[in-house]
Amino acid sequence: SAVISQKPSRDICQRGTSLTIQCQVDSQVTMMFWYRQQPGQSLTLIATANQGSEATYESGFVIDKFPISRPNLTFSTLTVSNMSPEDSSIYLCSVEMGSGELFFGEGSRLTVL
Amino acid sequence: GENVEQHPSTLSVQEGDSAVIKCTYSDSASNYFPWYKQELGKRPQLIIDIRSNVGEKKDQRIAVTLNKTAKHFSLHITETQPEDSAVYFCAASWFRGNMLTFGGGTRLMVKP
Lengths: 113, 112
Known about the structure:
Order of helices and strands of chain A: EEEEEEEEEEE
Strand content of chain A: over 45%
Number of strands of chain A: 11
Largest sheet of chain B: 6 strands, mixed
Oligomer: heterodimer
Radius of gyration of chain A: 13 Å
Helix content of chain A: under 10%
Distance between the termini of chain B: 41 Å
Shape of chain B: globular
Structural class of chain A: mainly beta
Strand content of chain B: over 45%
Shape of chain A: globular
Radius of gyration of chain B: 13 Å
Distance between the termini of chain A: 36 Å
Largest interface: A-B, 19 and 22 residues
């Protein structure tokens, strides 16, 4: 298994600002992902965070809005840029350890006013 | 890309009854089908998964069945308990846990 720490756990932000979410894993992992869970909704993959190269974004998500860093095999950040109320969601970091199982962080609950 | 449909969106059962949640997927190349449970305010956690080379898998009170021809899979919970109350998500991918596409979720309520 993996222990995944996300910071912040929650935040309230003003429209037009940006917030960076950090994800720290207790062991080196190859596959690291960022998901979004809008209120009462399912999980939607934003991007795969690739170590040493640009993230791979899913349809509907772009680097300018959700820049991602992956400086090493245990850490990643997701920035939500120029926020609007529609960005209010839970953002979840997840990792895959090679068994197929996805482990999720506790999530970062973002409210944009 | 993959599309996963999940039914029902809400399910209410009496404690001790069985619960069944069904999912269909669109990509015939998908070969890995996990189920996640998310309790209120908590992270999703894997409860069971199945790969395309088997038709059924059991773990105590939960079981998953897969019909690759029809492209659907189901979660079965027997002897439900109040602590089974949560949102359940099915998912599908073509490669282990990579690129998982999740269903819309089922809110299960077990009434004591």
